[in-house]
């Protein structure tokens, strides 16, 4: 009897950035490499075949997803992206932008027939703007709802889930120990919560970041609120190895 195909995971972490002349820009993302390596080990233990890539240009990032369309895949495809970014965009190590919609388009093309039929799960650790989240009082329930930006949500293809480190327009925090978002994901994946359905697991990550994390030092007290969008039609359990 043949063995079932192994689910795949692609982890991309950019820590050092340069300009068109090769000069260093944006500053080194300290702590990002170590947590990406830890996530890769965790996913390997959860029976994923993991590909970990460091410091890739915008073109190389697109090429990596093009390559995934030609791979054999199991039940799920997971991708973790850790880089600088802005709303709807992540940066290559050459400081050039890659639109998330472009990545989704590649994976939903006719070239990747296997990928179009399986759940594709993204965790994106990157800023989505320049605003700092000062947090809210949880007791306050009478305020007018704030306007939100859903434009980038509308472009995800079928069978896709995307979880962002922060809300639209805000920064995502990272320090030498790692990021609020991916550290919370690590904690959930290492615990019994990994057996939960994906939407419940992501809600646990939200709770962990909202109530257990806040910035220190220069940005003392600032918060972060992850959010996710899904168009799955049924519960999936991608980390219940």
Q: What is the number of helices?
A: 6
Order of helices and strands: EEEHEHEEEEHHEEEEEEHHE
Number of strands: 15
| Form type | globular
The description of the largest β-sheet is: 6 strands, mixed
Uncertain stretches of 5 or more adjacent residues: 136-151
C-alpha-based Rg, rounded: 18 Å
Q: Between the first and last Cα atoms, what is the distance in angstroms?
A: 20 Å
CATH hierarchy class name: Alpha Beta
Strand content: 15-25%
Helix proportion: 25-40%
CATH topology term: Rossmann fold
- Mean pLDDT across the residues is 82
How many structural domains in the coordinates? 1
Organism: Ardeotis kori
GO molecular function: cysteine-type endopeptidase activity
InterPro entries: Caspase-like_dom_sf, Caspase-related_regulators, Pept_C14_caspase, Pept_C14_p10, Pept_C14_p20, Pept_C14A
Family: Belongs to the peptidase C14A family.
Describe this structure in words.
- It comes from Ardeotis kori.
- Pfam families: Peptidase_C14.
- InterPro entries: Caspase-like_dom_sf, Caspase-related_regulators, Pept_C14_caspase, Pept_C14_p10, Pept_C14_p20, Pept_C14A.
- This is CASP3 protein.
- A 6-stranded mixed beta sheet has the order 4-1-5-9-11-15, with helices on one face. The protein has a 3-stranded antiparallel beta sheet with strand order 6-7-8.
- 35% of the residues are buried.
- It has a single domain, classed as Rossmann fold.
- The chain is of the alpha/beta class.
- It contains 6 helices and 15 strands.
- Strand 6 and strand 7 form a beta hairpin.
């Amino acid at each position: 009897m043949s063995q079932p195909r192994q689910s795949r995971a692609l982890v991309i972490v950019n820590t050092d950035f340069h300009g068109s002349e090769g000069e260093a820009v944006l500053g080194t993302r300290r702590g990002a490499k170590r947590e990406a390596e830890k996530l890769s080990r965790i996913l390997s233990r959860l029976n994923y075949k993991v590909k970990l890539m460091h410091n890739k240009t915008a073109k190389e990032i697109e090429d990596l997803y093009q390559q995934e369309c030609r791979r054999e895949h199991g039940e799920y495809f997971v991708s973790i992206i850790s880089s600088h970014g802005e709303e709807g965009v992540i940066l290559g190590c050459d400081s050039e932008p890659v639109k998330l919609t472009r990545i989704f388009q590649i994976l939903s093309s006719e070239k990747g027939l296997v990928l179009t039929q399986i759940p594709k799960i993204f965790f994106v650790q990157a800023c989505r703007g320049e605003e700092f989240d000062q947090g809210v009082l949880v007791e306050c329930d009478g305020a007018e709802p704030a306007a939100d930006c859903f434009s980038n949500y509308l472009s995800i293809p079928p069978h896709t889930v995307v979880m962002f480190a922060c809300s639209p327009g805000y920064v995502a925090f990272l320090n030498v120990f790692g990021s609020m978002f991916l550290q919370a994901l690590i904690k959930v994946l290492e615990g019994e919560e990994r057996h939960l359905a994906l939407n419940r697991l992501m809600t646990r990550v939200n709770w962990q970041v909202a109530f257990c994390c806040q910035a220190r030092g220069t940005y003392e007290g600032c918060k972060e609120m992850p959010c996710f969008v899904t168009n799955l039609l049924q519960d999936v359990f991608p980390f219940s190895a």
